[in-house]
Specification:
single chain, alpha/beta, FAD/NAD(P)-binding domain, D-Amino Acid Oxidase, Chain A, domain 2, 3 domains, eight-stranded mixed beta sheet, 30% strand, globular, binds flavin-adenine dinucleotide
Length: 379
């Protein structure tokens, strides 16, 4: 069986669905291929999104998935801790429902796994377990392990991290704040997120997620019933976005915040740029606009992440204590979606110089790593 579509989107996750909705609004009729039997499941997400997500997008998002409102965080590392407060800084969403709301009235072929894709004279040939497809234009929204990215050879320097999460029956001390316990500031961490309904999400992104999660549960004496387990990969790095008549978006394109690993906001914003480029018949414009808007931010955060991941505990402790001492500044200028503004304010404060000095000393002891870090410097 051979099917033709002008535009095929591989992956009906939130970013693929939002891209499809935008394309429909622009007069196109995209077809989505989704390997699972439904949208939204299995879940692999902590479901925390900045409140701006529901205000800043071109197509208003349904608010039905919002379960809880967050007013701050308790942040800890190695015995030191501080609190951040900001009214309605974020929402906790039911991720399955969030995705399902985005998928209304879309044409989706379920149980259809892309197995291979290659360019043909006018467009692309897609081989799936459910038949063959032809498309003039292909959008890979197929997540961190994107088959489109791999098969079409998009350049990328991404590294995949592992995330693991339990939903546990319990009522946390604070229902309006999340807990973030750093395994390594400011990249690898464990979280406790109140859903607000007698359930908390306890999860981690780190090198040994299963062991780390159990360590966290034991340390905090969390003994409630585990009602769901979620796992997934987080792509951190950068990626080429356009190749011929194919494009990547969302996790497939590594559009993830390097410090917090959140990908929903970046992916949805990128979808808007992608669809503008399709509408303007100028696909290269997608790469240019993405770079103009987000590349600097991502590269600064990647540089910081790369440096901190390679630092010893003594430097990290100093760094964390410095951030703790400046927590009021973070409260004032910190932005849920933009982290480089905080990094710049801290770096431009003379009181940081001893901490930066310690970091540089650590770097100087490792010249190969220093070279790699500088290579990632923002353009
Ligand atoms: C543990 C964990 C916690 C997270 N917490 C947060 C958070 O709190 N906030 C936040 O903003 N982000 C978070 N993220 C990241 C967020 O989940 C992703 O950025 C987001 O899901 C990206 O959406 P997407 O549509 O690009 O990819 P996905 O959600 O991965 O969707 C891709 C879709 O493509 C389908 N697919 C894949 N391969 C194929 C194929 N070959 N053929 C057909 N279909 C295919 C999949 O089934 C899926 O439906 C977290 C991630 C993890 C792992």
């Amino acid at each position: 069986m051979k099917k033709n579509a002008k535009i095929i989107i591989v992956g009906a996750g939130p970013i693929g669905c939002y891209t499809a909705q935008l394309l429909k609004h622009a007069g196109y009729n995209p077809l989505l291929l989704e390997e699972h039997a439904q949208v939204g499941r299995p879940v692999s997400c902590a479901g925390i999104v900045g409140k701006g997500l529901f205000e800043e997008l071109r197509l208003p998002l349904s608010r039905r998935s919002i379960q809880n409102t967050i007013n701050g965080a308790r942040v800890s590392y190695n015995g030191a801790a501080f609190d951040l407060h900001r009214q309605t800084v974020a929402y906790i969403v039911d991720r399955a429902l969030f995705d399902q709301e985005l998928s209304h009235k879309l044409e989706i072929e379920f149980n259809t796994t892309l197995q291979d894709i290659h360019p043909i004279r006018e467009g692309y040939f897609l081989k799936t377990n459910n038949g063959e497809y032809f498309a003039d234009l292909v959008i890979g929204a197929d997540g961190p392990n994107s088959r489109v990215r791999k098969a079409l050879g998009f350049n990328s320097d991404m590294k995949l991290y592992r995330g693991y999460q339990y939903r546990i029956k319990m009522t946390p001390e604070r229902l309006d704040a999340v807990e973030v316990d750093y395994v390594k500031p400011f990249s690898l961490f464990t979280w406790l997120i109140p859903e607000g309904n007698g359930v908390a999400r306890v999860g981690t992104i780190c090198n040994n997620p299963y062991q780390e999660l159990n360590r966290f549960l034991e340390k905090h004496k969390l003994t409630g019933e585990i009602i769901e387990k979620n796992a997934g990969a987080i792509p951190i790095g950068t990626c080429e976005l356009v190749k011929g008549q194919a494009m990547l978006v969302g996790d497939a394109a590594c559009q993830v915040k390097p410090i917090t690993s959140g990908g929903i906001y970046y992916g949805l914003k990128a979808a808007e740029m992608l669809v503008d480029a399709v509408r303007d018949n100028n696909l290269a414009q997608y790469q240019t606009r993405w770079s103009e808007e987000f590349e600097q931010e991502i590269r600064i955060c990647l540089l910081l992440r790369n440096i901190l991941e390679n630092m010893g505990e003594d430097v990290l402790k100093k760094m964390f204590e410095y951030v703790r001492d400046n927590s009021r500044l973070i409260e004032k200028i910190g932005d849920f979606e933009n982290h480089s503004s905080v990094i710049w304010s801290l770096v431009s404060n003379p009181r940081t110089y001893p901490t930066i000095g310690a970091l540089l000393m650590g770097l100087a002891r490792n010249p190969r790593f220093l070279f790699r870090s500088l290579f990632r410097l923002p353009r």
